[in-house]
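One thing: can you check what follows?
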Amino acid sequence: MTFIFLAFYLILSKSLDYLCNRKTKTLDKMKQHNEERTLTKAEMDIMNVLWDKGEGMTTHEIIEQYPEPKPAYSTIATFLKILTNKGFIQSRKQEGGGKTFVFTPLISREAYTNRVMKEVKTTFFAGSLKSMLSFFAKQEEVSDEDLAEIVELIKNK
């Protein structure tokens, strides 16, 4: 009887180790994959609506924020599903709302912008902030006033 119990224990232990390691590896892959994802223009439009509102919104509430002609319900619903699968938003059923879902961002505008700008700096400017700032200073018409303000912001960092 002790032998059977020991054998069962070892099999169960190995199975749990396998499942835990598999789950951890899957979560690590999802996290890594999530960090590499970027938003398309249409996805960014929806995220901006959610970020601007600052709280969860239903599909109809999101559509109301668009100018005329408003996108189709199915179009916004599809993009909300994509954003959920990408890990940018989460959904929950609205209390007393039947089938209505409320969508909320899982990443702030600031955090997403920070990630994208770091990627731009790394990809296009070999990780050099100086090169990136120099590029934008040359490409944009920066007033002396704006330049002075930027210098002051850098000094007070």
The longest strand covers residues 89-93. Residues 95 and 138 are 52 Å apart (CA to CA). Strands lie at 89-93, 101-105.
